Amino acid sequence: MNWLNSEAFTLLDQRIIWSDMIGNILGLITLALGWRRSLLTWPVQFLSGLVLFIAFYGHLAGSAGKQVVVMVVALYGWWQWNRNKGQAEDGHIAPRFATWRERGAMIAAAAVGTVAVALLFKAYPSLSWDPWPDAYIFVGTIVAMYAQARGMTEFWIAWLLVDLVGVPLNFANGYAFSGFVYVIYGALVLWGMRDWWLRSRRASQPVLEGAPA
Questions:
Q1: Which is higher by pLDDT, 117 or 211?
Q2: Cα(117)–Cα(196) distance, integer angstroms
Q3: What is the pTM of this model?
Q4: Pick from 139, 93, 99: which is nearest to 116 by CA?
């Protein structure tokens, strides 16, 4: 599997390796499938994590370990969506707004998790190239995936917050290609959030007795 770490092409003076390109493409597909509330979003997310794990295993232990967590959460998401499919009229899961208690718990988990993971990265520098933003992006990704697995519309907001750090960070570090991919992520997030938000609003509105559903 060494070819995953070989150069696919050069763009904007940046060497694009196969694992990055495949991972980015699978990430875009995952978001698009998540927008459509397709159960396939989770196998594709798992595959993306697997590709990156294979690419990192053996020389970037920290990055490989993070992909294991992503794959575990992807399995959880597949189980949740498979269990709750059919709730909406179109046969997919029914999006909902998180409760204030759930929102508070996710914000707290994101804050505590970011600090804990950043301190771990600082204690073991080989695990991360930039502890604090890396921890923020990693923990934010896990929180977003968890909220998505639970069908919460707020997961799009979590992805957007991750993108707000990921985009400038990639450009600042000279990874223009990855930065442009994150911009596309951001556009998909906004469109997906609008769709889920409208569906959640309709689902939360009470139906008057005698009125058509």
A1: 117
A2: 30
A3: 0.86
A4: 139
